[in-house]
Amino acid sequence: MQDAATDPGQQARRSWMAVLARASAAELEDALAECGERPEYRRLRGPEPGLVMVRGRIGGGGGAFNLGEMTVTRCTVRLADGAVGHAYVAGRDERQAELAALCDAVLQGGRPAGALHAAVERLQAAQQAQRDAVAAKAAATRVQFFAMETWRGGPGA
Amino acid sequence: MIDAAFPEPVLQAQACFRAVLDAMARPGRVFGVDAGFAPPAPLAPATASVLLTLADHETPLWLDADSAEARDWVAFHCGAPVLADPARCGFAVALGPMDLQRLPAGTHETPERSATLIQQVRALGTGRRYRLVGPGLREPALLAVDGLAEDFAVAWAANHARFPRGVDLILCAGTRLAALPRSVGVTEA
């Protein structure tokens, strides 16, 4: 079995799952509407809300720190052709989790998913643009500290 | 191919937990569980329901060669780590005869660190009859089980003799279950 981190198929799936998890239910509805008739599917699990512990290496020692719990909603669906889609989304929007799982299943192939791939790419671009806009806004308030040697009145002068 | 599990996870897991609790408190009495879903072959509805109710990511699980067919379903719905060696499991699932001595029996200090064997049998209420005595039974009870090993009463006597150590047993057939806690003594009737 190939390592999930290096398998290109897994990486592509990871990237679209990240986009789907950040898209709203309405955006996912639109994306699915573009590829015509909605495929038939069954829910295997959920949608069900739960808590996950968010951990981060935010201390000086490098150890994982329990930052806090966040609400996530997960869902797993299966299409008629056997493709299984999973989704874990932040928040309590069960519709969003179900649609994201459905999109994940459709994107894995089996049936033509070109239109959905294009829609996901558009969503990805929109999400990236929004992140860039926030980053630019934050960058405007950045304070530049001079290094000692470039400071004219510094000890070296 | 993985299929769905409990349609109403909270209510059904609670109902099944109550059935297991009652079965443990009243050894030999048969209780029904309402599965409401098609279990993965070769598991019976009761076996699958008990797994969904009791097994989770904190309970290492061991599946015998027959029940390993349902491994993907169990891993997906229970999230329990499936072990290759039964010696460290919390729950074990067996469709065929199982040697109770291969399962952890706990220690005298921590008898709760023992395994619970979920044994699927052909039928409860018919077949070989066993006489049960012990806590929870004012009068000796009779339990008929079709599908246990020939020498089950002997193997159980060895398990019972280790008390407070030992293995607890949940018998599942179709949508029905009964339990034999380690405290109960079993002889063939």
Walk me through the structure.
The complex is a heterodimer of chains A (157) and B (189). Chain A is built from 4 helices and 3 strands. By secondary structure, chain A is an alpha+beta fold. In chain A, strands 1-2-3 form a 3-stranded antiparallel β-sheet. In chain A, a hairpin with a 4-residue loop joins strand 2 and strand 3 (84-90). In chain A, helix 1 crosses helix 4. The radius of gyration of chain A is 21 Å and the shape is globular. By secondary structure, chain B is α/β, with parallel strands linked by helices. Helices cover 24% and strands 25% of the residues of chain B. Chain B has helices at 9-25, 45-54, 71-78, 152-161, and strands at residues 31-32, 61-63, 82-83, 91-94, 116-120, 123-133, 141-146, 168-173, 176-180, 185-188. In chain B, the strands form 2 sheets. Chain B has a 7-stranded mixed β-sheet. Chain B has a 3-stranded antiparallel β-sheet with strand order 7-6-10, covered by helices on one side. In chain B, helix 1 packs across helix 2 (45-54). The longest helix of chain B has 17 residues, at 9-25. Chain B is globular. Classes of the chains: A alpha+beta (157), B alpha/beta (189). Chains A and B meet through strand 1 of A and loops of B.
Q: How many H/I helical runs of chain A? A: 4
- How far apart the termini of chain B lie comes to 43 Å
Number of helices of chain B: 4
Quick one: overall form of chain B? globular
Element layout with pairings:
The complex is a heterodimer of chains A (157) and B (189).
Chain A: H1 8-22, H2 25-34, E1 41-56, E2 65-79, E3 84-90, H3 94-107, H4 114-139
Chain B: H1 9-25, E1 31-32, H2 45-54, E2 61-63, H3 71-78, E3 82-83, E4 91-94, E5 116-120, E6 123-133, E7 141-146, H4 152-161, E8 168-173, E9 176-180, E10 185-188
Parallel strand pairs in B: 2-3, 2-4, 4-5, 5-8
Antiparallel strand pairs in B: 1-9, 6-7, 6-10, 8-9
